[in-house]
């Protein structure tokens, strides 16, 4: 989809700002304070949304989300039943 929109460059403090029309905001799923990458190429400036960083979970959250009643995968059982070869503490 290529769409050309005319917008005005405005001065805000010591920076310049360009507004993005709401239909483009919705089409690209943008939100206020989201990071974007500005790409300069062949006399144009392209704006590209930065993919959100994956959420980091705490150890407590990961443990709380475990389903201890779920059946053990065959690969896990094989690993569990393998002979000990080091100084593992079980």
UniProtKB/TrEMBL annotation:
Which portions of the chain have biased composition (kind: Basic and acidic residues)? 81-90
Q: Which UniProt keywords apply?
A: DNA-binding
Where is the SpoVT-AbrB domain positioned along the sequence?
Answer: 7-52
Q: Where is this region: Disordered?
A: 69-90
List the Pfam families hit by this protein, alphabetically.
MazE_antitoxin
InterPro entries (alphabetical): Antitox_PemI-like, SpoVT-AbrB_dom, SpoVT-AbrB_sf
Domain of life of the native organism: Bacteria
Molecular function (GO) terms for this protein are: DNA binding; toxin sequestering activity
Q: What is this protein called?
A: Antitoxin ChpS
